[in-house]
From TrEMBL:
Record Gene3D superfamilies: Rhodopsin 7-helix transmembrane proteins (1.20.1070.10)
Alphabetized PROSITE patterns for the sequence: G_PROTEIN_RECEP_F1_1, G_PROTEIN_RECEP_F1_2
Cellular compartment(s): Membrane
Recorded coiled-coil stretches: none
Organism name: Steinernema hermaphroditum
An example Gene Ontology CC term for this record: membrane
GO molecular function terms noted in the UniProt entry: G protein-coupled receptor activity
Protein's recorded name: G-protein coupled receptors family 1 profile domain-containing protein
InterPro entries: 7TM_GPCR_Srsx (IPR019424), 7TM_GPCR_Srsx_nematod (IPR047130), GPCR_Rhodpsn (IPR000276), GPCR_Rhodpsn_7TM (IPR017452)
Record domain G-protein coupled receptors family 1 profile: where: 34-121
Taxonomic lineage of the native organism: Eukaryota, Metazoa, Ecdysozoa, Nematoda, Chromadorea
Keyword terms of this UniProt record: Membrane, Transmembrane, Transmembrane helix
Length: 172
């Protein structure tokens, strides 16, 4: 087998997943605990209530949502089961939203730090970050969902069944 041949059988994939998923799950408690420490420090300390520190605490919350995406697939991989598309869709909605929000928060933290360094006299200008975060968050979470809805009939049917609407049957 050459180094560029990326074909892998289902059995090889399951063997690989059984070895990797316990290692991946071993890091999960550390990630969650450390992010909870960041959140608790921001809440308890009055000195950590600046815009940047609040954004960092929100980043820690979104990271917890992102890390939660590994539990269900790793558990099924360890048991040697594949996950159906509909199960994957429902179990990845919250981590997907957390991931989108995480990218937004990194951008806003950078923007806040830039304003504080470039315009130190106008520190109150960094409140623009708080004002801008709402619309950016809404767009950042909504647009990928709309794209999935438009491009994938599987996701479209899952969203319709989520809201109690029967999937449309296309006549052939």
């Amino acid at each position: 087998m050459s180094l560029v041949d990326l074909r892998i059988t289902e059995d090889e994939l399951l063997v690989f997943a059984r070895h990797i998923s316990p290692v991946y799950m071993a890091f999960l408690p550390f990630c969650v605990i450390l992010n909870i420490i960041i959140i608790a420090a921001t809440i308890k300390s009055s000195r950590l209530r600046s815009n940047c520190n609040i954004l960092i605490a929100l980043q820690a919350v979104s990271d917890i949502f992102v890390f939660s995406s590994s539990i269900y697939p790793a558990y099924n991989a360890f048991l040697g089961r594949f996950v159906s598309v509909s199960d994957c869709f429902f179990h990845q909605m919250i981590p997907f939203a957390g991931g989108c929000f995480s990218y937004l928060l990194v951008l806003l933290i950078g923007f806040d730090r830039y304003l504080c360094v470039a315009y130190p006299i106008l520190v109150n200008l960094s409140q623009a970050v708080e004002f801008a975060s709402g619309p950016f968050a809404a767009v950042n979470v909504t647009i990928p969902c709309i794209i999935y809805y438009k491009l994938s009939s599987v996701y479209r049917d899952e969203i319709r069944s989520l809201f109690g609407v029967k999937p449309q049957v296309v006549p052939t």
